[in-house]
Input
Amino acid sequence: MDSNWKEELARLKAIIASTGLTETKKWGIPVFTYNGKNLIGIAGFKSHFALWFYNGSFLRDEKKVLINASEGKTKALRQWRFHAMEEIDELGIIAYIQEAIENENQGKKLIPQKKEQLPIPPQLQAVFEDDEAFAENFFVLSTSKQNDYLEHIHAAKQEKTKLSRIEKMRPLVMQGQGLHDKYKK
Output
C-alpha cells in the first residue's frame, strides 16, 4: 500500500467496517470478505487510491464510478478510484457494498471460460518430432500449463529467441512443471 494515502485508506476501512465485512490480508493488502468470499479490496497507488469489488461487473453502478482497470483481461473486477479525501462518498460506498453482499447471497459470480489450447509453433513441433519423450511430457500437462509455455514461445519475435525458450522449458516439462510453478508456492 502506498503510504501517501494513509488517512484516505483508513477512512475507506472505517466505512467498510461499518458494513460488517471481515477484514483479512491477501497479497499484502486489506481484503474484506463476506461468508469467506473476497468481496472488496482497497489499496493506494501513486496517483490514486481505490476500492475494488471482486464481482463488480454485477453491480448496477448507478453513479457510473466503476472502471475495468485492465480492459480485455479483467472480467469481473471493477475499481472505484479516488484522488482526494473529499471524493469519498460514504453513503454511495455503503450502497455499493450492500448491493455486492446481495449479489453474493444470490450466488452471482463470473464463471471463467476455459481457454482452448493455443496452436503449436512450428519450432516446437519440430522439436517434438525429434524428441517423443518431450512431446509426451508436454501433452500430459494441463491445458493452462501448455498454454503458458505456448504463449511464452509465441511472444518471442526472433527465431533464435523462440528456440532458446524451447530449450529452457525442456527440463521443466520433463519434470512435469509449468512455466510459472515456482511462483505459485
